[in-house]
Queue: 4 jobs
Job 1
Amino acid sequence: MGFIKTWKAEGAKSALVGSYDWKFLCKPRWPYCRKKGADEFKPPPFYAHDEGLSLLVALSIGLQHALCMSTNIITPALLVFNVVMGYFPEVYDPSLGDEQAANRERALDTAQYLVSASLICSGIGTMMQVSTIPIPFTKGKYQLGTGVLSTMGTANQYNAIFPIILYDIMSYGYTLDEAWGKLLGTIMACVWIEGLISFVPYKILKKVFPPYVLGVTVSLIGVQLTGAGMKFWGGGVSCSGCAAVNCPCLGNGEVLLGFGSGPYVAMGFAVFLIFFLVEIFGSPFARNTMVIWGLLGGYAIAAIASYEGAAFVTTDRMKSSPVFTFLWMYTFPIGIHGPAVIPMLFAFCVTAMETFGDVTATEHASRLRPSGPDHAKRVQGGLLGDTVATFFAAVGTTPPNTTLSQNNGIVSLTRCASADAGFACGFWLLIFGVIAKIGAWILSIPNCVLGGALCFLFANIILSGIKLIGFHRIDRRTHYIVAASLALGVGTALVPMFSKPGIGANADKPNQWWPYEEGMSTALNSFRVGVMISMNTPYFIGSLTAMILNQIIPRDEVDPEELAVENEWAEYDSDTDDDSETDDLLATPVKYIEDPEDPKAENKEVPAEATAEESAEVIGEQADEA
């Protein structure tokens, strides 16, 4: 890391403490008493992706990234296991007897372990992804890792298909542990399609996955997951289909009420209120880690609150949990579930699409040119890094890993793109995972509190998709592709019964568009189930539609008059914007100028407002340096 080199060159103080504008990072704001036009303070200097940091600065900024990621990382295990237990109340409903109560406790113990293991695997994956590891015998053409601040965490897009795959496996009589082992084996077998995609030429990837196709995919993932977050907010997944008093929601401590009861809704709104206050008054550090403060504040309110003497938070699991843990403390029998292969292969294609966009966004935030041979190598290394990290995560018994996009906002606000912060982030995630008490605390968060945070978190995924769609000029052709794709994807999310798959115990229901037929071979039935699971997944049907339409619909000739009007409007908007009221002190926008005769011009930036003469001067300086 950079602080070791700094220690040797400049001494211990510079290496350990360094210089950073901590006032910028930690000072709360009071926007309503600020004089118009007054500057609060100047932002800190920009740290490039290959620039070394002092140990204190690296740990501080790495902690922000780790806290920002942690909610993403812990969600899959909690969400998937709660949904699956809701599918089988006869096995996991403690009100039915001691056996069911014991089954539920074992499942929660497994979920607690998976939370810790996911944090550990994410930490290791992040350290690998921010590195640049040349692949032997390729003469430097291919690499593992992006070499920029691309953080890795447990992927949330798989939350849409994992519960239904586990339900299908368990419908054949397998236990939850056996079903999880089959899912892990299927992940290990299918993830290599993303590795193959990493070696596809960049020009082909860019043509198949333009920004608006990526945006449709990401938006539909957010739409489906936001619905799951609302179920948590109302009390839990298992009781979301029955709002009666005789269907109490589990997972909210000792409080047993029907779905959507007032106390549950109020707890979720308390989290939203904390988000609101942090956004208005919080320091940059606090706003970067808003979801964590919302969870902590909501948890504190739930811990001191009660309903008719019943507590929302119980500490039994924290008391009985060991202090430390690590990977493979729980093991699962590995297998492969045939019907899951088709949806899993497509899910990894979607992950490749998302990683493509995430790496590009990280380059923008890091002031690196998102084009050219270096960009192509970063995308290739990121896709291969996703593959290796996911395979290792499956070997480590956890869900797949992928790059996380929300951390790019921290890069922009802190003005730190140094890879040292990525290594520090991985260190913090390892610490969070090894301390088992943290996983036990997470399991004690009431569903209604967690749901309030998840709804906000997943809605941000929708917004990320919308921003990706906006990267491309929305002409009539693009408008049609996006509208048709969202029609099928959002429609499936809102009315899942439209294409509900008949699987497991429901395989012989006659109202399915591809029903099970007596005498159907095992292979054909597995294929049928895989296709139906895929078609019932919003982002699958939406993304597939977008990719097909993008290839077969001819492109229209651009109307120069329409383009001139749009450019005129854009210039007018930029001239009339009042930047004096900007809240976040972000980096100055830059544009990148490439001298075709200078191979070192890849990462040279020029202020966006630079004149032609200034731009020419920069190119001249580049030529002199060469």
Note: The CA atoms of residues 477 and 555 lie 7 Å apart.
Job 2
Amino acid sequence: MKTVTHSSLSLSLLKRKANIGKRIYLSGSDLSIADVLAVSEDPTINVTIQESAWNDMDENAAYVRHKIISEGLIVYGINTGFGGSADTRSSKLEEMQISLLRHTCAGMGRSHSVQSVRAAMLVRANCLCRGYSGIRPEVVNTLLQLLNNDITPVVPLRGTVSASGDLMPLAYIAAVLIGREESRVVYRGVEMPCRKALEDALIEPVILGPKEGLALINASTMAAGVASRLLYDANIAVLLTQVCNGLSVEALHGRTESFHPLLHSIGLPHVGQCEVAENMLNILKDSRLAITTLDMHLPDTGLIKQDRYSLRGSPQFLGPVLETLKEACRRVHIDLNSSTDNPIFDHRTDTIAHGANFLGETLSISMDQTRQALQLCGKLLFAAFSEIINHRINQGLPPNLSASDFNLDFGFKGADIAMASYMSELDQLTNPMSNHILSAELHNQSINSMALVSARLSLEALEILQMMIANILCLNAQAVDLRHLGNLVTSQLLQLTEGYPEARRELRIITWYELAFQTSESAAKLGECVPEQKRAGFIKKVSSAMEELVTEVKEGRAETAKYLSCGTRKMYEFIREDLEIPFYWGQSYIDTWLQKILTAIQGRQVEGIMENIFQSQKSSIDLEEPDH
């Protein structure tokens, strides 16, 4: 049996978004996470109901009207009250739907982003297109007219327990459809009264028929829309985390042995763990900064015998993250293409069923688990960052990765402090939401999911993780430059001290970065180890060599990229060349560079890099029992 890898799933989402074009047809069966993201951000994409779906909705709505009007059937939410008030009855069908919107439009305060609301509108329309919700296609088409005319309802950020669905947020969308006088919208970037926008776009407000108000709002669609947007970028963040891990291996002169198949595909064959290990081997292919030989074939140096956990344990640590993200995508995809309101009508079999598909618990737990997975990525990056910046354990890099006089320049110390702040906030956000529920609405909603709140918290967690990724990418670019410079300096010094055994011994005491960045004092000290008649010439040669090497790195002429692996080289070049982030030697403030990297991540400029790095990975992993 084989399972699709996380990297292939992630790249398929990137490819789907890139190939969407300017029109999407809704059938109720094949809306993807990438589709939701694309439409949520691009109002020029036209969304249309597929003809077969239009016919299904038309027949379904006619069935409902026949059951209620012709047969006099009493059905929840059509001629009864709502929730805990479902023991009331009324024959005023239109007023009943208006009453539903009136009591659920009870929000205040801050609003959801335009993108989140557009995502919810698209998902709701697609779910209704399945033809099980009793709504006429004309109503769904009006919802799509809002999308296609870039009219987005202003929706309060808070106030939903996500069961019975996201009633309050979706009620504000439905209120615009009926032209509620007080409703506000954002029309082509400008907030205004909804009636003015509808009039300008030549959209007629709808008159709600039986069950149509309930069909529009009685679903966890807002949570599904936000979750879709979140998962698209979360998958990219997980890919980036693995690339950061590869750069950290090179920065710390780490070992690829940690990713050997013996440990994973044979030793502990969890599917996510095996994928991370294989990804790391591919990312680090042809690296000249990482140790690629098994330790058993190397002489003992007396140094630490194996990498610390942030490198060595990364497959075991990130493996569950990949599995969690894959499962979250699977679950959300189901929600995007399902009937998530209540009750559900099947005109095909003459069946009406009351249930709770609106509950959103699957979404809530998926978002909780996704947020936990994002936290684990942050933990790994934080651990690696803390090791790389600490000269006592970073295998010979300067304190704070300073590339000048480290008595005066403190390099990335501020970024180190910020990393701890980001991690603490991310830790706090990771608390689960799905188990923090209270009974609501006359104890009818005695259990609920808080799915939308969980999705919102996950968006915040993702933003923090993206900041941590930007932070460590900037740090790692500096670190591999310094690692390469350290190798060049060491090689040059070995040549210059040839024939001077005392100077060679002194090199065990003086660090390479003291000679590179505090050259005059360190070269003079090293010169004391050579005969006096040769001392001045020796010191001059050392000083000149150090100045030349440091200048090459400062000016980007040291060709660090040639020594990086196939995967990390692409990210390094993106940072140094595409984003023009220079080697840092105290010449400026680093916050503008960090912001530039963060903007590139959040603006998805890294998508092409991820495709280049991961496109050669396997699309599936064999889950058969290993031979013993």
Note: The longest strand covers residues 23-26.
Job 3
Amino acid sequence: LQEFQIKMAGMGISLNLPWSISSVSSITSSLSSLYCLFTITVYVVITINKFATNSLKNHAEVEASNFLLYMLVLSCGFLIYLLAYLIKPPRSHSNKKSHGSAFLRQGAAVFGVGTGFYFLISLASHIINIACVGPIRTINSFLAVIFTILQMMTIILYPRLNLDQGFGIPHFGLMHIVSTNLILWIKTVIKESILEFHEAIEKEDEEGEAHGSSDHGNLNATASSCKPVAEEDDYMYSIVRGSSPILFAFIIEFVLIGATVFYNMWHHVKPYNIAGTKHLEKLPEKPNFKAVIAKTDWSHSVYGVGIGFVLVLLNITALSIFFGFASEDNVIDEYIEKVTRCITNSYGIIATVIGLVQIQKLTEKADPEDSSVDGFLLNLGGSFSYLYMCFTITVGVFTTDLEDIPGSLHIINAVIDIAQITSQIVLIKLLLNRVIKSEEDEHPGRQVTAFLVLLNVTLWLVDTFELQKSQASLVESEFYGPVTWVWLQRLTLPLAIFFRFHSTVVLIDCWKNSYRLEQKVEDAD
């Protein structure tokens, strides 16, 4: 067996272990991935137990604050350690390609700002009402702000960072950050669900009082023990509550981007600092935005972008109608949303079929890159989209004459959505392993790829800001019951929304790299 050597830089200590390099790397990577799963499991179990045993049923009472404090403290500590120590050679080097594309890093910046703003105003609200909120939740808000800033810095400034495995700290540290991001995602989904849950309860109570009965009076009375303090004496609470519907979406996207990038970074941890290995004594490369723009080929995209913008305007108009005239007394908003979505996805199916035919003219890569992570995330998001659409089909089958929306519209909308998702995943997976034969090629399928980028951006906006609102699915809410529908939405929509965002990221990557010669793709950012 090849002797595994680790040198502690600057300390003159050499540790020799009679294990192969691959064995040590496999052990640390396996243990760290199991650690990630264990921490997520512990958080979920604590939260479920608190929710089941607490009569208040509000987020403050069911949040696993102490465990979240542990996760945030270690994550912030490791990110500081990474930025101050691990990024310096010989403990790190630059990967050939970024762990997150340029578009993903821009998304991290935009969503990171929104996430940081939410945690910042939450911190201000908690400080004002610390007697009611408690010191642990206040500290967690502060650490969440620090964590957001540090994660943004790492993703944006060091997208190509590869770490030496050392004693296993990089493996465990990076997987701890992945776990923290996923826990923050679960926490946000639960918090948003509980808010929607109480709104549904209040609506049921109002309807019950109108008929002379109410079953949740005690729950609503106990669920707002801190409410008078927060609403009457703290103007920050109104800002937090008013911005939550939008900023919750920012948090979810930001932490999922963080989990994806740091998982890719974890996947590339390897024993780089081995005795006898030559390496350049320089810091990992930082992205050059101007250079990326200058070397980007913008050709063969005009028609795809033009038609895509027509769909963007159509959906923005429908979105404006929803926010301008949304009402709980009729379902016209839901009707408009479903018709618009049918039109959008129909164009998506046509474009995808055309693209599947055209890209057959491209050549397969001689040395294809590992795209298993992207494929897994597409399949995962697509499966939750299928689940949500199956709930919609059920409504259409069993409530054909309910309200003003025919059951056939629910079925058609869901079937078209499923067909578009399926064909798009197939197209993306084919494109990831294809390149042009020569620079003189006509770039077959690039117009379609540009169009699908805008289509997925449009559907991401609709799903984020409209679909998860109760007014956008009144028929489903009436069929399943308001409370049940809240939980069904929160279990399926987050990953369905992420599917559209991740599809956009991967399609942009295909638009850039599948239409370059293979030897130039390695230098693409």
Note: The longest strand covers residues 4-8.
Job 4
Amino acid sequence: MKTRTLCVLLIASGLVSMAILFSGSSCKHDNAAVQENEMFERHQRENTIYSSFRLTMDAALRKTAEEFRQLMKTSSFECDCPKKLKHGPLTGTARERQKNEYKEWSRTNRFNKEPISVCQSLSPISYIGSGTTLETLSSVRLVGLRIHPDVTTLLGDHFKTSDFSLKLKSRSFYGTLHVSFWKDNMKGVKIEGNGTYELEIKAGNNIEYLNMILQNIIYNNTRYTIKARDAVDISFLGFEVSINLLIRRSEIPILYDTTDREDITHKVTVATKTFERYDAVNKLVQSINKFYPNMTIVIADDSRKPESIRGQNVKQYTMPFAEGLNAGKNLVLSQIRTKYFLWVDDDFVFTKKTKLESMLEKLESPTAGLDLVAGMIQDRNGNIRPCGKDNCWRTLKYDQGINGNCIYKGKSWSHRRLEEFPNCQVLDLVTDFWMAKSRAVRKAGGFDIEFERIGHREFFVDAIGQLHIAQCDDVSILHAPITNKNYEQYRRMEIDPSEKLRYVDHILFKNNLQCFESWFPKLISNTLLENKHKKKV
């Protein structure tokens, strides 16, 4: 004798969820016949298991999505930074403004969160809970929607009914639901609300008819949006499931025509910013002309008395005096026409080891998936290092807390080694000698113009989660520092010392930080910050 078996499968996918499958397989019993009392006992056990699962899931389903997200966290809901070289938190009205701005940011970024999908145990409904995407003002078929045919025997005793009704509803009212096709000879079938936000299908006691209709459920987006999430909530015999939908306007591709020529000068532009250091920037240009005579060089210059920079293929853009480092970076970024660009400081010098082709190879790798690749720095003594001598940051630790987030220096030297290029390390922060995809840097927001005198690590902090970054040891550039009094006064923020405090407060506010570990200990001393705190008290 053959009997149907109930198979329970717990599936964890990203956000913890459970899905139950009804098995259509058959099991052969050793005995030729199953006694009536054995069948009765088995049904009793199934009823007990079923009731237990329903009670557990009914309690779970009462939790909100945010409650589930909090339960998923494995670390504390609060964070703190090392006391040494610690900046933050903001206080008073600045903290209140920060809270309000973060609420606005959270609201505009709410669609980036993956939806929580809790699937009930022992549910007879098969469906695709996530991954359904449709173009704005278009429609999509809700594929995979099906009721298991054994529901009539397995669940009939529980619900004491043989008439089946299934309801579908657009949760956020971004779209309507309709049945695109059903046969006129389906006896007992009735459809209500076809083409509205809420659809009900009554199929009598015929699961076969119901499943035929479910194969033709269409969701039609009726509200224009460039990105939104909706869910189709489905209820059937006391079970409730949700199909999550992502509605978005497709981005138009932006392609770069590098022509048929493989010459790197048609793919890469060199970019830099200079201030009161013409002797340095002229040496840089001369070295570029020597190794890459046809490469375009874009320079932003906010010196007090602009001078013409000597060299070939130079595009020099003058700015108001002391306008700022990142303002200049944005200016040169706006003038780059090539698919890639190389960023260098104005006191760098190209050498035989400055092989831009090697950096380009990494960016063009179809499997590495890099957005930005950095090289190494060589000093005048021939020593090559991955970053500056002092306070070298390569990875970053970012913790989220209830009262703001925390940033501090990562303990690991790198996240991992690139499989495609074993001499490259995947990092968060790199030295100021890097090549990047122009489109990716623009999309990441470019450079924050609030940072006028210094602005290096701040760019990489803002780019966390947006740019895939690596540093490779097969390319280097010479650092030949040249300084003067005018340059140092502005570089060290000696003209207006309060600018240092504004700099710290801006980082705290902008990145919604409770605190961060300083990455510029020589520039902003603890004494200065302690005096600031005493004045507030």
Note: Residues 36-61 form the longest helix (26 residues).
